[in-house]
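Hi Y.,

Following your request, here is the sequence exactly as I used it, all 448 residues.
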Amino acid sequence: MESRITAGRVPPHNNDAEKAVLGAVMLDTEALEIVLDYLRADDFYRAAHQKIFEIIMQLDGNHDPLDIITVTDMLKREQALDACGGTSYISELTSSVPSSANVGYYAQIVQSASVKRRLIRASSKIMEQSYSDIEDHKEILADAEKLIFDILEGNQVKGGYRTSIDVINETINMIEKLYQAGGDYTGVPSGFPELDKMTSGFQPSDFIVIGARPSVGKTAFALSIVNYMALKKIPVGFFTLEMAGRSVMQRLLSMESRIDLQKIRSGLLKHSHFHSLTEAAARLYEAPLFIDDTPNIKLLDLRAQARRMKKNEQVQAIFIDYIGLVEPEVRGNVPRHEQVAIVSRSLKALARELDIPVICLSQVGRQSEGKEPNLADLRESGSIEQDADVVLFIHRDRGEGDQEQEDTKRLLETDVILAKQRNGPVGHFKLGFNKRYTRFESLTRGDY
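Below is the corresponding structure, written out as tokens. Let me know if you'd prefer a different format.
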């Protein structure tokens, strides 16, 4: 659909700048390195210029000589020379620029016009969807946000190479920070040394799955990590699809104040409890924690909110409780396992898009009851196992659960199984579960 604003108008472009870029590269092959910081073939407006740039890239990739003669010869071999204006036009490109000295400036002019064209195309698509009676407004908003976000991301100028001096200074600074923090983690720390030693923290762009049978402690485990991150001033987002935000906060207050969760929920508190509760609330009040408690949130809405959290709050990790309650935008009678597969793939893509770890809770199938769970037990879809970079299982024998009811003061040993790690080791370790405060604690330190 062409709007009244764009009808009959030529899209933004600068033909002279495009010719200058191509001519400069054929005059001086070193100019290509500068150009590649700004442009790809589809940034050129004219199809002929796109093809010429593709040929230039092909010659460079093959380590062949790059000049007017080799470009003309390659175009001729691909029977594209006439479509690109013939030999005379290729010669004209090199004569249109006196030298390659200003190639970076020319490339930025071409890039600016390319971004404007992409904005026009995005706007046209948004208008077309908005006029449609079929599209849902939430889908349109999510698509619009994604279109603009993609343009912003694609417009980032790449950094060039750096000297060893720059890299070693950065590395030493990082080592000093890690030393001061008392850890050697390259990702976002979980607060559990046993886990962080195996993973080096939750890594950017990783899709991490935490699986367990009901009532074993998936949410408690996730919230224990969230609580640690937030109190360490690491911005973190938490999507809770099962509990209201106030229920999540009750758990966090219980963890932090060490007041029995049941007493907080029932209001059966002693006067002495309020000092601890107030101090815990003050610490959490200052914590960079962002909670979305929309029940049965749509996948598109979740992705849109996650992008806003990253853009506005600079969150370094996002937790989702849990994957089975995220509803994909699908039409028709789509099998449940395919719906979960759509959600799983989308959350993996979201982690890569935002370049932060996305940690998602998942139910484990009934077939794992009474035994240690494995990857095949992930419920409803095998794609979760395939998409996940890291899979953790929480396992506790039901026999111990009976003892737990008799003595809620002791730490209940719980197995944490690192069943999959795409870029690291797998293995087991134990944590202690404190039922009174619904928090997990390190058995080696007694606390995080």
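The chain has a mean pLDDT of 80.

Thanks again,
Q.
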